[in-house]
Design a protein that fits this description.
Distance between the termini: 87 Å
Largest sheet: 5 strands, mixed
CATH topology of the largest domain: Heat Shock Protein 90
Number of domains: 3
Bound molecules: adenosine-5'-diphosphate
Number of strands: 11
Order of helices and strands: HHEHEEEHHHEHHEEHEEHHEE
Oligomer: single chain
């Protein structure tokens, strides 16, 4: 704008200089009447020389002085009025100052008004959109925050209802899933604590009961020995429970604690059978072995515990003069071990539950065989850590069969 004003002023000066013999003031009055800019000429005393227009050009005295002294004044701010420039215009040795100013016009005012209306519309529409976005995005996030707060306080029943399928909807669905899992974990934790307390309570009750009974002075040697044996057995049971709990917890807390070596699985099974010989021969149980040579890459101690627990259960839940059969073979890239017995069997609906801590079938409870219900949980944990599988089925003769499938690691 400033440049345009300047070049306009220069053009006026140039036109005047090129038209020889023209009177300055009439010429400038003519130019002023046809120019799209407002112009004014000041003489050396600072007096305006052109006819006053509706748009008077009134620069302050100092600016006029500067221009008369030969300086171009660019006064784009012009104290809040329209932009103005001043050009020195010496004629016949006399200094004049030519000022060119932007005229206000209707169009300019009109476009200004339109721009303001547009800006106001943009502002209103923008505010409305921001409000809508707030409702659409911020509200669900606030709901999520409240739900997370209530979850943190232990209320696992929180559920966020939503029909949305977008990212917020997916976030809500993941939150609901997490709350469900936490609720499940919390339930399991409570059950676990209740089971531990129950398992510990019953031996403690018998120990304290029999200890009180032994305080009686008159008691036969036979009764005393009987009571002491019970106290001893119950103490051993307590110790077994705590050992198993510790073992289970250490396996669960360090699922990578598998120290693998290569060893012959069939030989390990044979050793376990020999180690448990007093128990199965005491019940006159016939143990049949069908062991194909198979080398696995696994944690030897942990797997030995697996067979001890499975064979121990087989012996425990098989009647006197029963039969236990152990088979091992390879199937593809896996080693398979089956331990079958013709004992009391496991009801179909409990064949997965028996791997949970403290789960015992009713049949097993009735028989009052000692056990805490932790053995199979330890077995399952170890098999899982070896990326293997374990399942319980019914043996054709009515007993149970436990099948363990372990991967034979690459290169072996
Ligand atoms: P427990 O110390 O009671 O034996 P386990 O975890 O080893 O604990 O076994 C859990 C339950 O699974 C047992 O109480 C029993 O009801 C059932 N069970 C395990 N093995 C057998 C089996 N060979 N025959 C019948 N029931 C079994």
């Amino acid at each position: 704008m400033e440049n345009s004003l300047l070049s306009n002023g220069e053009q006026i000066i140039q036109t005047y200089r090129s038209s020889v013999g023209t009177e300055l003031i009439p010429f400038m009055n003519n130019v002023s009447s046809i120019s799209i800019y407002a112009i004014q000429l000041f003489d050396a005393s600072g007096k305006p020389l052109l006819e006053d227009k509706s748009e008077p050009v009134v620069p302050d005295a100092e600016r006029i002085r500067h221009v008369l002294a030969g300086t171009v004044v660019r006064d784009i701010e012009n104290d809040g009025r329209y932009p103005m420039v001043g050009l020195p215009f010496p004629v016949d040795g006399k200094p004049y100052a030519l000022f060119v100013m932007l005229k206000s016009n209707e169009l300019w005012m009109q476009s200004n008004k339109e721009v303001s209306t547009e800006l106001l519309t943009v502002f209103l529409v923008g505010s409305f959109l921001i409000l809508a976005a707030t409702r659409f995005i911020v509200k669900p996030l606030l709901r999520l925050r409240d739900a997370a707060g209530s979850l943190a306080q232990g209320n696992f029943d929180v559920k966020i209802r939503t029909n949305r399928k977008d990212e917020i909807g997916q976030l809500n669905a993941s939150f609901n899933e997490m709350a469900q899992e936490l609720a499940k974990l919390d339930r399991m934790r409570r059950e676990f604590v209740a089971n531990v307390s129950h398992e510990i309570q019953s031996p403690l009750t018998s120990i304290s009961g029999f200890a009180k009974a032994m305080k009686q002075k008159r008691m036969s040697e036979e009764s005393r020995m009987y009571y002491l044996t019970i106290i001893e057995e119950e103490s051993e049971r307590l110790s077994r429970i705590s050992q198993n709990l510790l073992r289970l917890s250490s396996l669960q807390h360090d699922p990578y604690s598998v120290h693998s070596t290569a060893f012959r699985l069939d030989e390990q099974l044979r050793k376990v059978v020999i180690a448990l010989e007093p128990q199965w021969s005491g019940k006159e149980i016939a143990v049949e072995l069908d062991l194909k040579p198979v080398t696995v890459h696994a944690d030897e101690d942990q797997l030995s515990q697996v067979w001890m627990n499975l064979l121990g259960n087989g012996i425990k839940f098989t009647p006197v003069r029963g039969r236990i059969c152990i088979r091992s073979y390879t199937e593809g890239r896996s080693a398979v071990v089956c331990i079958m017995d013709n004992g009391i069997g496991i009801p179909e609906d409990q064949r997965t539950d028996i791997f949970k801590p403290f789960h015992k079938t009713d049949k097993a409870r009735d028989r009052a065989v000692s056990g805490s219900g932790l053995g199979l949980s330890i077995v399952k944990q170890i098999v899982d850590m070896h990326e293997g599988e374990i399942r319980a089925d019914e043996e054709s003769g009515g007993g149970s069969v436990f099948t363990v499938k372990l991967p034979i690691r690459k290169g072996l």
